[in-house]
Amino acid sequence: MALANRMSMKSGLARTTVSRRCVVVRAALELKPPPYALDALEPHLSKSTLEFHWGKHHRAYVDNLNKQIAGTDLEGKTLEDIVLASWNGGSPTPAFNNAAQIWNHTFYWESLKPNGGGAPTGKLADAINASFGSYDEFKVIFRATQH
């Protein structure tokens, strides 16, 4: 109990209410903002597109997952832990879809940046050059496969 009290007081998340009990506070998952202003990707992605896709669609996954995990062993866990646990060894639980979509959308937002793009570097550039001869040739072939 002493260790729990020290940890609780150190983190500031829980307090001892009686000498032998403590209150445990579990934080809900929150919608993480994109790492740029909502209009920063214009003209490729408009501010209104981000307001809808991030502000409503992505938010719905967060809100729905918080409802699904409230009062369960998953409440208070990290998103990554929830994804792994709800995958359930290949038999996904209902929480998996929302958790995986939150992770997927967060990854998407963090993969974009204002004035981004351009030729890849490092191992990816090496692999493209080895397979296609050059990044420009890769783009020609890639565009030809689009429908």
Structure description:
The protein is built from six helices and two strands. With 147 residues, the protein is mostly helical. It has a domain at 40-114: Helix Hairpins. α2 (47-69) runs antiparallel to α4 and α3 (79-87) packs across α4. It starts with a helix and ends with a helix.
Features:
147 residues; mainly alpha; Helix Hairpins; extended; Mn/Fe_SOD_N; metal-binding; oxidoreductase; iron; Mn/Fe_SOD
Shape descriptor: extended
Q: How many β-strands, per DSSP?
A: 2
CATH topology of the domain at 40-114: Helix Hairpins
Beta-strand content: under 5%
| Count of runs of 4 or more consecutive helical residues | 6
Structural class: mainly alpha
Give, in order, the helices and strands. Answer: HEEHHHHH
Compute the CA-based radius of gyration: 22 Å
Helical percentage:
55-70%
CATH class of the domain at 40-114: Mainly Alpha
Task: Report on the biggest sheet.
Answer: 2 strands, antiparallel
Low-pLDDT windows of residues: 1-19
Could you report the average pLDDT, rounded to the nearest whole number? 85
Q: Describe the strand arrangement of the main beta sheet, using strand numbers.
A: 1-2
In whole angstroms, how far apart are the ends?
63 Å
* CATH arch. level architecture of the domain at 40-114: Orthogonal Bundle
The CATH superfamily of the domain at 40-114 appears as Fe,Mn superoxide dismutase (SOD) domain
